[in-house]
Amino acid sequence: MTPPRTPKIPYGGDYNPEQWPKEVWDADHRLFTEAGIDTLTVGVFSWSLTQPAEDTYDLPVLDRILDRAAAEGRQVCLATGTAALPPWLAKRYPEVNRTDFEGRRHRYGQRHNFCPSSPAYRSAATGLAHRLAGRYAGHPAVLAWHINNEYGGVCYCDLCAEAFRAWLRDRHGTLDALNDAWWTAFWSHRYTDWDQIEPPSALTEHWRGPDHTAFQGITLDYHRFTTDALLGCFLAEKEAIRAHDPDTPVTTNFMGMFRPLDYHRWAPHLDFASWDSYPPLDAPPTVAALAHDLMRGLKDGAPFWLMEQTPSTTACRDVNPVRRPGELRLATFQAIAHGADAALYFQMRASRGACEKYHGAVIGHAGRDDTRVFREVAALGKELELLGGTTLGARTPARTALLFDWDSWWALEMSDGPSRLVRYQEVVHTHYRAAREAGADVDVVPVTADLTPYDVILAPALHMIKDDLAARLEAAATRGATVLATFLSGRVDEHDRAFLTDVPGPLAPLMGIRVDEWDARPEKTTNPVRLGDFTAEARLIFEIVRLRGAEPIGTYTTDFYAGTPAVTRHHVGRGEAWYIATALDQPGTAHIIRRILTRHDLIGPRTSHPAVETATRVAPDGTRLLFLLNHAPAEAHVTAPAPATDLLTGQRTERDKPFTLDPLGVAVLALQ
Description:
- Strand 6, helix 9 and strand 7 form a beta-alpha-beta unit.
- The chain has four domains: about 10-150 and about 220-310 and about 335-345 and about 380-385, Alpha-Beta Barrel (TIM Barrel), CATH 3.20.20.80; about 160-215, no CATH class; about 400-600, 3-Layer(aba) Sandwich (Rossmann fold), CATH 3.40.50.880; about 610-670, Golgi alpha-mannosidase II (Immunoglobulin-like).
- It starts with 10 loop residues before the first strand and ends with a strand.
- Helix 5 (about 120-135) runs parallel beside helix 8, helix 6 packs across helix 8 (about 215-240) and helix 14 crosses helix 17 (about 585-600).
- The longest helix has 27 residues, at about 215-240.
- It contains 17 helices and 27 strands.
- The chain is α/β, with parallel strands linked by helices.
- InterPro entries: Beta_galactosidase_C, Beta_galactosidase_Trimer, Class_I_gatase-like, GH, Glyco_hydro_42, Glyco_hydro_42_N, Glyco_hydro_b.
- It holds the Pfam family Glyco_hydro_42M.
- It catalyses: Hydrolysis of terminal non-reducing beta-D-galactose residues in beta-D-galactosides.
- Its EC number is 3.2.1.23.
- Belongs to the glycosyl hydrolase 42 family.
C-alpha cells in the first residue's frame, strides 16, 4: 500500500482539541484556514480520554473532533493513542509498567511507559484500536491511521525475560547453537536450560551502562528482541484496524537515526514511512538530510511523511534556540527535496501546562495570528498550495548508495575495543556529507538492498558482515561500480563473533589488503595522512595495512607505521574497491569521495556554491525537479543545468544563466 492520495502536500500537524473548550476550537479552525492547514493528527495521547475505565469507552469528544474536521474540509491522521498508558491500566495491571535497566519496576508516570511483553497492555491496546477502527473506518475525515507514537524504550521484567527466551528458541533453535553463537565457553557461561538465560542488564552482564557488556552476543540479541517485541505491538494494532478498515494506509512515526530500534525490520510492515525531525539547529544541513534519506530508503525509495517538526523551538533540551526567520521554510523544502510528501508540525496549538507548554507551536498561548511564527507558517502554506501535487510520488534518481546497518551500529558501539570513541553515526555522516556536498544524490539503504542500480556504494564502519553481502559487493565492483569501506569494517559475523581470517574478514579479498594491527589513540592525537599533494588529518583508529593486490593512495606520516598505507584502491573487474583505514577528517574524506564520484561523473551542480544544497526528484509524469536550497545567510548566485521554471515564483531561467537565491532561499526548478 502507498501513502495516502492527496491533491497536494498535506500541511498541518498534531492537534489536541480535547484540551480546550469549543470556543477555542472555533478560533483554531479560523486560524487553520488562514494558514492553509488541511491535515490534523489527532488522538495521539488520548487513551485516558477515550477509555476512562477498563470496560468504558467514551468517544463523543473524538466524534466531534473528526466531524468538525470533515465539516471544515480538513483531513485527519487518526492515532490510536496507545503510546501513553491511562492511569487505571497501570493501577489495575502493574505488570504493564516497565522494569528499567537497573531492575526497578516503575510506577505510573510519563509516556512510552509500557512493557511490550505485557498481555494486559497488548489486550487493552488492541481493544482500543478495534473500537476506534470499528467506529471511524470510512469516516470522511480519516486519511491515515497513526499507531502509537515514537516507539521506544526497553523493558527487563520477568515477562520480557520469558518472551526473550521464546524469541531465542525461534532464532537459534537449540541451546548448542545459542552457546556457539554467544561463545559461552568464555567465562563459564555455557547454558544447559533456556530458563537460565536472563536479559542483559545492570544486574547481569553489564557494567558502566548499556554499552558495556561482558557478552556482546547476548546484548545484540536483546536489541533485536526489543525491536521485534515493539514491532509485535504495532502489528497487533494494525491487525485490529484491518479487521474493520482494509484500505486506509497505516503508519507510525519514526525518529530518524534512532539507535534503539532497527527500522529496517519494521519497514515492510508500514504502508508508508513517516518520521519526526528535530535536528539540532546548529547542525550541518546534512544531518537532517541524512535522516530524510534514511527514511526514504525504508520503503525502497518511496516518499515518506514528515510527521513532525517544530515551527519554532523545541522543549526537550537544556537550551532550546528558536528557528530564525526563513529557517522553517528552508527545512520544510529540504524535507520535500529528499522525499517528503507531507509537511506536518508538532504542535498546532501550544499546550497550557506540562512539559511541552514551551514547545514551539503554530498557534501560541495567546491565539494570535500576527506572530512571526504564524505568519511564516501561513506564507509557507500558500507556497505549498501553489506547488500543488507536482512533487507527490516523485522519486530520487540516485546512483550513489550508502549502506546503513543497525546491527553494525549496535555491535560497534558496545565493543570492548579498539576504541569507544568511534561513533557510528559520526562516521556515516562524514561520508554521507562528503557525497552530498559534492552534489550527489544518495540513497541510504539497508545491507539487504539490491545494489545493481548504483555506481558508487559507500559502506562506512560496516562492522558486521551478514549473509551474502561480501559477494554482492564484489559483484558490484566487478561490473564496474566503486565500493568504499572503512576502518573497523568486516570485523564480526551476525552473532558478533570475530572472523577467523584476515581483517577485514570477508571484505579482505575485495579490498585487496590485510590488516594485522590497529592502533587506537585519544581524540586529541592526530596522524597526518598524505594523499598526493593533499594532506588530511586522521584520528581515533589507525589500522596498519599490508597490501594484497591493492595500491596505496594515501600514507601515514608519523609513528612507527609512517609510510604505510592509510588509503588504498584495488582494481576489481571493471570497478574499484577503496579502503580508508583511519578516521579521516571531513576535508580528507571529501577528497577521497570526490575522486570516486568523478570517476562515475556524479559530481553535481552544488559545487558551484558551497552553501547551496541540490537534490533531484523525478515526478510520476517524468518531470525532473531540481531543488536548490541556500543554507547561507547571504545571497547565492547559481545557474540551472537546463532551461527551467521555478515552480514557486513562475520565473523562467535558461541553461547556465545566473540567477540569485535569497538568503536561506529556495528554488524548485522544473527542468525542460
